[in-house]
Amino acid sequence: MTRRLTIALTLNLTLALGLAAGTANTAEVEHKYVDYKISAAPTLSVPFPKTDAKAAGINAAALDRLVKRAAETHSDSLVVLRDGKLVGDWRFGKPQEPIEIMSVTKSVANLAIGHLVTTGRLFSTDVPVSTWYPEWKQGKKASVTIGNLLSQTSGLRAEPSAQEVYNSADILRLALDAPLAHDPGTDFFYNNKAVNILGGIVQKISGKRLDEYMRDEVFAPLGIDHFSWMRDPAGNPHVMAGLKLDALDLAKIGQLMLNRGVWNGKQIVSAKWVDTSVHPAQAFQPNYGLLWWTVNQWSKLTLDGATLEAWRKGGAAPGFLDKMATLKDKDLTQEELSHALDTLFGAGQGMTAYNQNVRAKGLPNPKRSVGPQIGFSGNGYLGQYIVVLTAPKLVAIRQIRSDSYKGDQDSFDDFQTLVRGLVP
Fold first, then answer.
1. Integer Cα distance of 154 and 33 in angstroms
2. For residue 157, what is the domain's CATH number?
3. By the 8 A CB rule, do 146 and 201 touch?
């Protein structure tokens, strides 16, 4: 279906920061936002009808706790939907405008591949990447599929930080030229570099860049008429991060997924695609689907001896290892682990120590075990969240700008827990 849309594109000349990985871009390579403003609102736009906590069956005290924590953690926006109705939209005195959603971009970009599959332009995610990039037809790269890119099992070598991506003038070529670190499909690695290939595949199939395809085929039907998307100097849209959306528009993405791909009676992506995307898609990470994370009744992290030894061999500081060894073989929730880290390293310093010694070195996290699934989420650096709880039909959004972020406590690690408490 075609639409006559007037698009105003302006380049944001601000030098892109490597915020998705937690480091600033120091290279003289400009990654710029392309700003899209659709002057004519699509006819299929549906505003959320408003409700209140009591009518929506939301626990008022739990909602108060959520809003209070959002304010304490310097949030820029908080949106809660119940059964497709707007329970609340809090901006905390900040301007209402699109905010960089960091790695939640990956979850949103999933919809581009889903739309291609739904419309039959892409037969299957089992199709090899070499179909469009014949240089991959040789060696083990020949077996890398679109599904591997979506499930983070491509095996491509990448730095733990996304800094190499922000330092690159051509992020697509950077990923295509990367060697394999593991055989495809044999290991999970959250790969900010590899996922950018998906943007190239969307363009190969559709003839449109990823941001333009999303504008026309996904955002327009949802009435998302103002967003920005980062591109590298070669013109490649980022997939790992780089999308700016307003909180209410991000909530539309959540509601679309909750509705199993339907918006205002129109099937944007198939129910099968949504179901596949939000359930575990590989055997190595029990809470990861296709660029979406699962939400489970419970999730425990266990720091076993093998992980401690991997940290030692990987160069973690001896003092860090000694303190962490006191947590050996304990089953902890994410919140309990965060509290334990602050107890060991000082208030507000625990996650910093963990990031420096584990995440920055690409070392394995403690082993995770999960309970029954109750929803799904997209998560981004600094604490960007879209949480969808299936049975209570709840969607919750939290966003924070980089200049609002005052410290690790502002990552709002207990956001999902507080959201789950909204509905008894």
1. 27
2. 3.40.710.10
3. yes
Which residue shows structure tokens 């505003």? 47
* CA-derived radius of gyration, the chain: 21
Domain-terminating residue out of 370, 394, 409 = 370
Burial 205-243 (b: 16+ CB within 10 A, else e): bbeebbbbbbbbbbbbbbbbbbbbbbbbeeebbbbbbbb
Is 185 found in the same domain as 85? yes
Same domain, 293 and 305: no
> Cα-flanking dihedrals φ and ψ of residue 365, to 5°?
-75, 165
How far is the CA of 203 from the CAs of 32, 200, 210, 318, in angstroms?
A: 19, 5, 6, 47
C-alpha span between 236 and 172 (Å, rounded): 7
- 267 and 310 within one domain: no
Range of the domain at 362: 298-370
pLDDT band at 424 (very low <50, low <70, confident <90, very high): confident
Question: Do 70 and 40 lie in a common domain?
Answer: yes
Q: What is the pLDDT of residue 39?
A: 61
309 and 178 co-located in one domain: no
Write down the pLDDT at residue 305: 95
Residues 209 and 312 in one domain: no
Task: Note if the pTM is more than 0.70.
Answer: yes
Residues 160 and 92 in one domain: yes
Strand, helix or coil for residue 235: coil
Could you identify the residue written with the tokens 């849209």? 237
Sheet of 331-332, strand order = 331-332, 299-302, 367-370
Please indicate, yes or no, whether residues 123 and 12 belong to a single structural domain of this protein: yes
Spatial CB neighbours of 2, under 8 Å, sequence gap ≥ 6: none
Last residue of a domain, one of 370, 385, 410: 370
**Which DSSP letter does residue 70 get?**
H
The C-alpha atoms of residue 106 and residue 36 are separated, in whole angstroms, by 19
In which order are the strands placed within the sheet that holds 394-399? Answer: 85-90, 77-82, 394-399, 384-389, 373-380, 293-296
- Mean pLDDT of all residues in 277-296: 96
**Are 86 and 50 a contacting pair, CB within 8 Å?**
yes
pLDDT digits (tens, 9 = 90+) for 121-145: 999 999 999 999 999 999 999 999 9
- Count of domains for the chain: 2
